[in-house]
Amino acid sequence: MKYLKILYVQVIIGIIAGVLVGWLFPGFSSTAKLISETFINMIRMVIAPVIFFTIVAGVAGAGNMKKVGRVGVKSLIYFEVVTTLALIIGLVIANVVKPGAGIAIPHTASTQVAEISQQANTVNWSDFIAHIVPHNIVEAFAKGDILQILFFSILFAIGLKMLGAQGQNLLVNFEKINKVLFNILKIIMRLSPIGAFGGMAYTIGKFGFSTLAILGKLLLTFYLTGIVFIFVVLYLICRYYKISLWRLLGYVKEEILIVLGSSSSEAVLPSVMRKLTDAGCEKEVVGLVIPTGYSFNLDGTTIYLSMSIIFLAQAYGIDLSWTQQLTVIGILLLTSKGAAGVTGSGFIVLASTLTTLKVIPLEGLALLIGVDRFMSEGRAIINFIGNTVATVVIAKSEKEVDMTVYKNVVEYSS
User: Fold this and answer.
1) Which of 204, 251, 344, 408 reaches 20 to 30 Å from 351, CA-CA?
2) What CATH number should be reported for the domain holding residue 9?
3) Domain range for residue 407?
4) Mean pLDDT value across the chain
């Protein structure tokens, strides 16, 4: 019975119970959705202040501006290289497996597709850079806009650092507030088995297993691609930096299960920041890389986008040349980053990309609406693992991780 006291065991039980309840009592889905959304909202409640106080304490407390700039540039280069690899892997596997071959295509667009199309037409991707700078920081905190909060936090930290000794009292208070926030997070995380239960019960109850049977090949191909990305690309990166991927995954297994149950990598953002700091990674690096990665390092989302485009092309019998597929990569490298500032970004970015390509009918999105929820867990998990690995890798490349602490916490205890 002692195993029942372990959080990740409780989360597994919650997920299994959610699947069973969703299957046997589909009418429970509306209540399950309320449970899941309430849990995620409790997490989102602390995301903005955690990011703010962590970055301010890290940058103003110990760092220098040159290092902040270097870590930022290195992170963006890393993100661009790795997400490009994710796109290419998604395209290659989709071309080999051909998950869209033989799929019955819809003749008319659904109401949801029409709404998504309208939203995609209103997205101006050139505004993405302007979006980084908030016109109202209170609004940015209220909406939980990670990118805008990150931008303001860095500026605030620089301003605080310029005060020198005069800013120390404020800095000490910020560090105390951050500890309080993480204590709140510990309380919320005890409810994660209930949140995972609600998320799975809603997914199964709302969409059922029938959707899985119809588009099972696409789902299997997507998850296969995710496995290849994690255990080939990320494994090789970890091996180069002499980090055990398996041990790191073991260290964050609770977070992975919570992401699986809630379909949201945001649900564990504060938790993984705390864990990586506890594992010896400099909090300044963690505070910069994790929030930036949540906007720019969406490996799972890029795999989903590239694979969905090839899937729809195959469903419509459209033979995309390699030149066109390279164009897809170029477009997605831009539009997938723009997803950071767009609510409900997955479908909207996909619709925007299809509109730009002008080759695949937008109506094909109706094929993906039912199965999208089952793919969202995979997207969220891959995004989460990709950002966790990125943080440790960048911290180690900057010599900003205490390897003695890291090995004791991650390598030997996982």
Assistant:
1) 204
2) 1.10.3860.10
3) 2-411
4) 82
